Amino acid sequence: MAVADLSEIVKAYDVRGVVPDQWDEALAELFGAAFVRVTDASAIVVGHDMRPSSPGLSRAFGRGAAGQGADVTEIGLCSTDQLYFASGQLDLPGAMFTASHNPAQYNGIKMCREGAKPVGQESGLAEVRALVEEWRVSGPPAREPDVAEGTLVQRDVLTDYAQHLRTLVDLTGIRQLKVVVDAGNGMGGHTVPTVFEGLPLQLDPMYFELDGTFPNHEANPLDPKNIVDLQRRVRETGADIGLAFDGDADRCFVVDENGDPVAPSAITALVAARELAKSPGSTVIHNLITSWSVPEVVRESGGTPVRTRVGHSFIKAEMARTGAIFGGEHSAHYYFRDFWNADTGMLAALHVLAALGEQQGTLSELVAEYDRYAASGEINSTVEDQPGRAAAVKAAFQDRDGVEIDELDGLTVTAADWWFNLRASNTEPLLRLNVEARDAATVDAVRDEVLGIVRA
């Protein structure tokens, strides 16, 4: 069997690694068996993306689950948020086979409990890993004598998924919009045509052919080089808006009519204002790297902002704890109470399209009120001694007047006119820096001072 140490592929929130070098269908079958044992599930739902290895891995996981007595509903090709929809609608634990935006040779599993509740290291993933490690030697245990082998059945939920999203945002009365969508040969090419069908949207599709080898560009819109084609098409065609989805289509990035990227924080603030208009006084979650504009807009809209760590498991836990209506992250993950607290870039995109189409102005004009500050974007530095460099930065700032420091997630330093966050990567020898300020000159000054210490 493939990898010797499962710690190489079992991450904080999911399983992810190179196929077949690090994991294969034999391991996937054990993961399916272990998932059923840990969740005590009598039935599960399984889906997969368009990577060449995904159908085989998904089916092997289903075999392992069925071998432990669970009935398996296979929904086949789907986006990650479509799998979350199935988990929520069917009230079943679920597994999605995808490596999101990673290169073609990678694959992975995102797992959830019934109702799309997350499975991470502290909520079942560590137990799954322990069982897989044990069973690689002994094999999975036999079913109890009174438990029959589970069934595997196929079910298409794409239409139901699209209909559910469209009950949450009404676009029927908006003006006609010209929309360029870059699916990056990922699952957006599967979901967008059905979700957009019949709406007043003139769709200009780019790279909708499902191809897990990513022949045009990586399906990672967070990297500026991967949205260049989209920006060019929007400018050339005079489109109203451009949308880019990542490989498993759970994240959506937006560019305006000029082809300029719209910050995910601005999208978070816009969607928060719309959700609060429907549910006044509600709570909105934002991670600590989102812009100052997010809590400002939430308060202005009559809501309560709650700041949390980076990462979907923390966001979803806080949403459940607080009853929040919406949550957003700087990485373009958007979470909705009406979507089982799960993240769906498609629903966020529908909100932006509705907001744009309900008025006559351009997208750049619309988002200007939500994009209030200058920002550095995320800057990575390769650093062997991450704790030591972070401690040096803390020492340099902690005694300054008017400066507050907190360590909710990495090091956050806040002054009257600026803030920065410095976080270590969980998987690489990197420190990640984000800076925001009231003007670009201050961003540059703070950035240069911090990087001077980090890279010394």
TrEMBL record:
Name of the encoding gene: manB
List each copy of the Alpha-D-phosphohexomutase alpha/beta/alpha domain by range. Answer: 9-130, 160-259, 267-373
> What are the required cofactors?
Mg(2+)
Q: Does the keyword Phosphoprotein apply?
A: yes
Family of this protein = Belongs to the phosphohexose mutase family.
Give the signal peptide as a residue range, or say none if absent: none
Provide the transmembrane region boundaries: none
Q: Which residue intervals define the domain Alpha-D-phosphohexomutase C-terminal in the entry? A: 378-451
* InterPro entries xref list: A-D-PHexomutase_a/b/a-I (IPR005844), A-D-PHexomutase_a/b/a-I/II/III (IPR016055), A-D-PHexomutase_a/b/a-II (IPR005845), A-D-PHexomutase_a/b/a-III (IPR005846), A-D-PHexomutase_C (IPR005843), A-D-PHexomutase_C_sf (IPR036900), Alpha-D-phosphohexomutase_SF (IPR005841)
NCBIfam families given in the database record:
PRK09542.1
Q: Name one Pfam family in it.
A: PGM_PMM_IV
Query: What is this protein called in UniProt?
Result: Phosphomannomutase/phosphoglucomutase
Q: CDD domains this protein is in?
A: PMM_PGM
Keywords from UniProt, A to Z, are: Isomerase, Magnesium, Metal-binding, Phosphoprotein
List the source organism: Streptomyces daqingensis
